[in-house]
Amino acid sequence: MHKAKQVLVIDDDGDFRESIRPLLENRGYLVIEASSGKEGLRKLIEFKPDVIVLDIMMECLEEGYGVNQAIKFKEAFAEYRSIPIIMVSSIHETPRERYPRAGEVDMIEPDCYLTKPLDLPRFLEVLDRLSKARA
Amino acid sequence: MRESAGLEQIVVIDDDYAMRLSCLQALSKLGLHVETCEDGAKGLNSVARLKPDLVLVDLKMPGISGMEVISRIHEIDPIIVIIVITGYATIGTAVDAMKAGAYDFLPKPFKPDELRMIVGRSLQHRRLLLESRRLEMERELLKRRFITFVSHQLKTPLTAIHQYLDVLRNLGDTVEVRAKSNEWLDRCLKRTKEMREIVDDWLTLSRMEGGMLSRQRVKVDLKPIVLNVLKTYREMEEANDVTLVPQLPGDSCLVRGDHNCLSVLFDNLIANAIKYNKPGGQVTVSAEMGDGEVVIAVHDTGVGIPREHKDYLFDEFFRVRGQGHTATTGTGLGLPICKRIVRESGGTIEVESEVGVGSTFRVRLPAYNAQDTNENQKGDPGDFGAEDDIDH
Q1: Minimum distance, in Å, between the CA of residue A56 and any CA atom of chain B
Q2: I need a surface site. Which of A20, B50, B57, B310 has the fewest CB within 10 A?
Q3: What CATH code is carried by the domain that includes residue A114?
Q4: Residue among A12, A57, A117 minimizing CB distance to B152
Q5: CB B298 within 8 A of CB B285
């Protein structure tokens, strides 16, 4: 039997987490929620999810970039490095457009960037694809 | 960049050496930084490099003409003030020069005092131009910040609402969805309320920007205002857990100001004191007469304000976040509105706070003094509500 894939949703907006939870559960995912970057990193270690959905603007401005950077580059998170990250934000520019200087953007660029409100079919398609790639 | 910050700078462009020298001497005495040039090309170089406050230009020079120099200077910076120097024979040209953008003209020959007078007047003009440019830039910056703010504060609830509706549609009609939909609709309504509050606050703020709200400075009794606000919140559910305690003097608390503005002020302060309180907490509003002023303190036993946030508290769009604050939403405009009302009423506002213990917002307003005014008492809005019998 297949073990259900786990999605870690890191977003400070409770309404965002609340609204996508049944959507993901319907799709057969197990949803883990975190309302801040710090909580997100804690739950990452605790659950080792298959895919991460990460907001940018949280308690600290652009907190999501920092979380992405920590997971992808910090030695302490080495074993979680390969977990795909879908960054979601109402900022229309991608990190690459927002921070065009090379070097900088490599640290914050996620595996996939989607704008809010989410295009739901696309979001689910990306989620399925990225989490399957890890199977 | 300015080579000597603060010092006003002048460039003199004249082909006549004696003229340059006398300008230099006369103007240096005024403590101005003066640079002289013998032709238009060199003069324009200096202007581009120095970005001076004022340029004196001779109209009749070999090379680039004085008229040409005037328009080129204003291409460099349209608010550089230009005075043309001209012989009697070319008064007509001087008028043309002023049409082309020169501020004033000085006929030759002139005495040092005449030069100093006209330069003094022109620099005055320059300061006004600089001030209005500064204000313009400030407005521009605020506008830009405002747009950034719109994209965050307003988009967040809008996105949440959109997503709820979209997910509801996407999930289709199932039992679990039906169970959720009522709760979700409630949340959507809550978020639209949040957006409405933001828009309302903007409108208040922009009305105040136009000076609409606080033009009136009349006799106002703060006592009924404060009691009214407390009464309103006591009747609202939100304050159920918090005790509201007025500690006001027996007689009236008269200040000079605008009734509506002061109502908004205390409404905001008391609403904050309730919102950022702890369950079972208390809000105390006290007033006392000081030296020519009335001091009103709104004290809460709430979560308090971290010291590092205190400086930004009255900034537009700032909202305290951190421990105990996470669940609270707000427009981020309440305290800026308070600050503006207090300032326009000629008062001050300050805050004392300790994290986990509570905060006190202290407002000082100029006391109303019957002697120093002969204003028309007819229809004085300050009497509004003074007879209202409010039990507390």
Answers
A1: 12
A2: B310
A3: 3.40.50.2300
A4: A57
A5: yes
Instruction: Output the pLDDT for position B78.
Output: 92
Residue A67 lies in a domain: yes
Is B167 in Cβ contact with A19 (below 8 Å)? yes
Residues of chain B found within 8 Å of residue A12, distances taken between Cβ atoms: 326
Question: Which residue range(s) make up the domain with A82?
Answer: 6-133
Residue B189 burial (10 A CB sphere; 0-12, 13-18, 19+): exposed
Measured on CA atoms in the order B125, B131, B134, B140, is the torsion positive or negative?
negative
Question: Are the beta carbons of A22 and B177 separated by less than 8 Å?
Answer: yes
3-state secondary structure of A20: helix
B155 touches chain A (CB under 8 A): yes
* Partner-chain contact B167 A57, CB within 8 Å: no
In a domain, A99, yes or no: yes
Name the residue type at position B168: L
**Number of domains comprising chain A:** 1
The number of helices, as runs of H, and strands, as runs of E, in chain A is: 6, 5
Kind plus residue range of the DSSP H or E element containing B253: none
Question: What confidence tens digit (pLDDT) does each residue in B270-298 have?
Answer: 988 988 888 889 999 999 888 889 999 99
Residue A1 within any structural domain of the chain: no
Q: Is residue A89 part of a domain?
A: yes
Residues near B58 by Cβ (< 8 Å), separated by ≥ 6?
Answer: B13, B14, B15, B16, B19, B66, B84, B85, B86
DSSP-derived pairing of the beta strands A6-10 and A51-55 = parallel
Decide if B171 and A35 are in contact by the 8 Å CB cutoff.
Answer: no
**Chain A: residue whose CA lies nearest to B148:** A91
Chain B neighbors of A59, CB-CB under 8 A:
321-322, 326
Helices (H), A27-76: 37-47, 63-73
In chain B, which residues have their Cβ closer than 8 Å to the Cβ of A35?
Answer: 326
Q: Which chain B residues are Cβ-neighbours of A118 within 8 angstroms?
A: 163, 166
Which of B339, B318, B342 is closest to B330 using CA atoms?
B318
Is some CB atom of chain B closer than 8 A to the CB atom of A120?
yes
- Whether B323 has a pLDDT exceeding 60, the answer reads no
**pLDDT (tens digit per residue) in B182-237:** 889 999 998 998 888 878 877 777 777 666 555 567 888 999 999 988 888 887 76
Q: Do A120 and B170 touch (CB under 8 A)?
A: yes
Which pLDDT does position B380 carry in this prediction?
Answer: 42
